[in-house]
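Before a colleague's protein record goes any further, I have to sign it off. Alongside the sequence sits a line of tokens, each denoting a local backbone shape. I want your independent view on whether this chain really folds as the tokens say. Where you disagree with what is written, explain briefly why. This is what I was given:
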Amino acid sequence: MILTDERAEDFLSKALVHLEAQEGKNHLALGLALALADGRAECAGAFFGTVVKERTVHTVALQTPPNPLIITAGDQESIGLIAQELATRKAKLPGVVGPGDEAEFFAQEWKRHTGSGAALAQQQIIFEISRIRAERPKEGSFRMMHDNELPVAAEWLGRFAAEALPHEVHSPEQLREAAQKRIRSHELFVLEVGGAPVSMAGLAEPTRNGIRINAVYTPHENRRKGYSTACVGSLVSQQLAHGRKSCFLYADAASPASIALYLRLGFLEVDRPRHYLFDEPPRQSLMPGS
């Protein structure tokens, strides 16, 4: 049986224990649902689905239009129920993100119900870290981004998206709005060398135990100098020192440089999700840097 909710609070009353049981794998869905529940994020028309069998949650799904559907691990019957429910609702899905086999099966079911084809947009790796190997900047200092750095933040978020999320489309206005919001929410940080920022990393969607790191970007001219490692390492150290039990992040499985960086810091691989795109035009994402 699939239970659907209109409010994140009602969804979490059913799904929280399931999501936190494997928080590293489920941090994206968990953090987003918590943000919607406490008002840190808003989204009209969000979908929340929970598949329950014999009073036990088997899998959950949520979507915040126009972003992809997020699904957690589950058997094919459960994934099929989610696809059927969304097809019945005539939902407009740009894609799906979830554990590899589950995401692939959902894409197949979505095509069966709607005729929409699917293409693999990205093979991803979820990393988690709870203890860092010391990485202090060899030069410069680590700090939050300032309001007067809005143009830099918007430009770097755009460059990050172009490299890491090429299937998404962001207007200059969206990038500026996202950068401004994230700076004011104290979510963007930089490593500064010689009085100028040289590398960036961001925070997003905290859970009750951890937080996600994203928007990791270093301009080409500053790469291979250890700046990315120092920036991410400093951010992880800060968050763990502030009481977070873990930090999480998504990485492109086709980016050996990024993978090497995270492994060097002490991140551990916890899952290999896939992101499938359905037959839709390039979308306008509401969350650049995600």
